[in-house]
Specification:
By secondary structure, this protein is mainly α. It has a domain of 75 residues. The protein starts with a helix and ends with a helix. The model has no long low-confidence stretch (mean pLDDT 90). This is Exonuclease SbcC. It comes from Pseudorhizobium halotolerans.
Length: 120
């Protein structure tokens, strides 16, 4: 009876061991695939982050260049305005000197010389 029991149980043990080995190999394959998926996901996230960091850096560079150009334009406009103001002040000073040099400075009204100064 032991021989018969041993003969009947042996295939069950072999089948059980084979099923256990197959289950282990299946689990190992799933674990490997899961690791590969995680690696791909992390790689995709890093690639996406690098892309957007590059886009942000490019946008910041463009904004800084535009800001610098605007500041240069403002300085140029300010220098031109200062030069025009200075020229107008010099012209006013010159006109005041010429007006003061005209005769009858205390007279009321405009004479020919003062009209000539205003017509300039």
């Amino acid at each position: 009876m032991t021989a018969w029991l041993s003969k009947a149980v042996t295939p069950l043990i072999v089948i059980s061991l084979m099923l256990l080995a197959a289950a282990f190999l299946g689990w190992l394959a799933l674990h490997t695939v899961d690791g590969m998926v995680d690696d791909a996901r992390l790689s995709a996230i890093a690639e996406r982050d690098a892309h957007w960091k590059g886009e942000i850096a490019e946008a910041n560079t463009k904004a800084a260049l535009a800001e610098a150009a605007q500041a240069n334009s403002a300085l140029r406009i300010q220098a031109e305005a200062t030069a025009k103001i200075r020229a107008a002040e010099e012209k006013l000073t010159e006109l005041e000197k010429e007006n003061a040099a005209l005769p009858d400075g205390a007279a009321c009204g405009l004479d020919h010389g003062r009209v000539r100064l205003l017509a300039r």
